[in-house]
Amino acid sequence: MTKALLSALIRPLVEPRLPEWVEPLWFASTDQALEMAPEAEIGWFDLNEKQPMIEIAKAATNLKWLNSIYAGLDFMPLDLLAERGVVVTNGVGINAITIAEYTVMLMLTHAKGYRNVVRAQERHEWLLESPGKRELSGERVLLLGLGAIGKLVKTRLEAFDMTVVPVRRSGGEGTLRPGEWRSQLGEFDWVVLAVPSTAETRHMIGASELASMRPNAVLVNIARGDVVDQDALVDALKHNKIEGALLDVTDPEPLPENHPLWDLENAQVTMHLSGRAQTKMFQRSADRFVENLDRWSQGQQVEPRLDLALGY
User: Fold this and answer.
1) N or C: which end of the chain has fewer CB within 10 A?
2) Under a CB-based contact definition with an 8 Å cutoff, are residues 43 and 3 in contact?
3) Which residues are catalytic?
4) Please, which residues bridge with residue 163 across strands?
């Protein structure tokens, strides 16, 4: 029997489908997880707070495979997991559909001034003019990140007749390489960030990048808060160097109550809700986990596998 440390929250979705060779160790608290962690060869112990997950991972000295619903696991002790030879699967793609839909919503909300429409309804005021007159059709989008989310964002924006130019290492027709996009920032109306959080991507959008963007450009961040130099962004927004910023993610999270981003009229902050705007996340994760259990038992590679050296 192979022991698997599993959260009681996913028990109804997983327990009836567990193969006979798996002995589940269900936990309902961090203390329970820490107590049972050393016995487990397989672990799926996602929690809302990161520090307990780190502690459980360190305590799971016999762990061979760690599964997670999170796409970004840069907060975990990846060096330690690599040293122990742990295979890690993450949640890449689980939330891709809803995040791509959320991206389109954010862009349309900005283009049509929809926040002001809602405010007018709350005031019982009948507007005679649209507060936003921008059309997505015909505009150009720089897409940084062409993973599971980026690919879906691309197809959805192209359905609005937008020209989407992705950045990818391998290059190719209609794309830019990582060393080319900065010099061409001024050619785009929208800059969409869908990259993982790594040392390479930290503050990839800073004061110089913002200064290179068009005055009508809009920055859309559905990646991680730390890929943007937030102080530089606040300055750019305050001085109207760019038209706006649509931020599903911030640095830190939650955003402090007194942070200036809350009150900037040309910023939208959506509290990292894009991946949560769905009802299928846990079901998709459970389905993937059960399928991977079958692969694991047959000695096949489990997917999607996290590169512990790269962090994504």
Assistant:
1) N
2) no
3) 224, 253, 272
4) 140
